[in-house]
Amino acid sequence: MNTRRDTGANALEELTEEECLQLVGPGGVGRVAFGGVAGPTVFPVNYKLVDGRVVFRIRKGGTMDESLQSGIDDLEVKIAFQVDHIDEEMRDGWSVLIQGPAHHVTETELRATSADVDSWAGDDRDHYVRLTPQQVTGRRINRL
C-alpha cells in the first residue's frame, strides 16, 4: 500500500514494487549506475522490461562492459538502474530505482526473448545485458 507524506503543496508517495514495474514497463531511456574503474559511473541506456528483467545494450569492450566483468566465475556484479519522469512546470513526477545483479545475455538467450532494444547511441552497441531485480523502490510527487 502507498504511503503519503505531506510536503506542503505536494505529497511524496512511496510506490509499491508492482507500481514501479508498471511505470518502467513501456521501456525507453534509463540510467545504469555501476562501479567503474575510475569510481562510481552512470550511463544513460535504452532499455526494455522483458519477463520482469531490465534488458539494455552496450558496446562490447566499452567502459560498462569492462566494469561488469569480474573475471571470477559465479561472481555477480550488482548495478543500479533508474528511470524517472519529471514535469518541472507542474512540480510533480516519479522515480524508480531497480537494484540487482547484471548478467551478459548469450545469443541463445537473446533469440529466446523479444529483447530487441533500439539503441539511440548506434549500432555498435550489440552486446545485451540483463538486470535481475532484487530490490525495486520508487516514489511519486503529486501536486495537491
Automatic annotation (TrEMBL):
Pfam families to which the protein is assigned, alphabetical: Pyridox_ox_2
Domain of life: Bacteria
Protein name, UniProt field: Pyridoxamine 5'-phosphate oxidase family protein
